[in-house]
């Protein structure tokens, strides 16, 4: 997969975001994220109002909108404010959560690891029988999996929000949410910690989640994720 990142200075604001902000008496404050598919997320603000986050993508955001609508009453995640299908893509607007991305904790990777573990443990505790959604597309069929959980499907460090004290606040980018083995999340999360913070950064993650690494499961799901 291509890597997501903070947009470079000078990155154009998608017209869909500019138009939505103007129509709703808001202004674009900052571009905060560019995902693997070229989608752009911007903070849109107004005086005396909570910030909103507008995400434009050239690819269909309806699956993410459906998952946010279902998940936000069950698990800490952004609440939907608007959704539009456009000529040049799709737009989701969500209510901002407090906190900041765990990727910003580069000087304390153990804090990011604990926050990611806490969030996934809480997500995996939800009842998969309540889910409206199948396994993430990249995971595929799970006929040989006997224990299924609700999984994030892209459990990378940037998709976790932490409070100023390092506590777990919520998870974003839930377009791959579904039902699968928890190892689909654990394999990606542990890879992401090492990718963002360096070798060994996942050790605190395993301790906090309460699971010993399973090399076979990790290898299996990383191969599926990166194929």
Write the layout of secondary structure elements.
Layout: H1 15-23, E1 27-34, E2 40-45, E3 52-57, H2 62-71, E4 79-86, E5 89-95, E6 100-101, H3 109-124, E7 149-151, E8 160-162, E9 168-171, E10 178-180, H4 183-197, H5 203-209, H6 215-226
Antiparallel strand pairs: 1-2, 2-3, 3-5, 4-5, 6-8, 7-10, 8-9
Label this structure with key terms:
single chain; 227 residues; alpha+beta; Phosphorylase Kinase, domain 1; Aminoglycoside 3'-phosphotransferase, Chain: A, domain 2; 5-stranded antiparallel β-sheet; 3-stranded antiparallel β-sheet; 30% helix
Report on this structure.
By secondary structure, the chain is α+β, with helices and mostly antiparallel strands. The protein folds into 2 domains: 15-95, Phosphorylase Kinase, domain 1, CATH 3.30.200.20; 100-226, Aminoglycoside phosphotransferase (APH), C-terminal lobe (Aminoglycoside 3'-phosphotransferase, Chain: A, domain 2, Alpha-Beta Complex), CATH 3.90.1200. It is built from 6 helices and 10 strands. The chain has helices at residues 15-23, 62-71, 109-124, 183-197, 203-209, 215-226, and strands at residues 27-34, 40-45, 52-57, 79-86, 89-95, 100-101, 149-151, 160-162, 168-171, 178-180. The strands form 3 sheets. It has a 5-stranded antiparallel sheet with strand order 1-2-3-5-4, sandwiched between helices. β2 and β3 form a beta hairpin. α3 (109-124) runs parallel beside α5 and α4 (183-197) crosses α6 (215-226). The chain is globular and about 50 Å long. The model has no long low-confidence stretch (mean pLDDT 94).
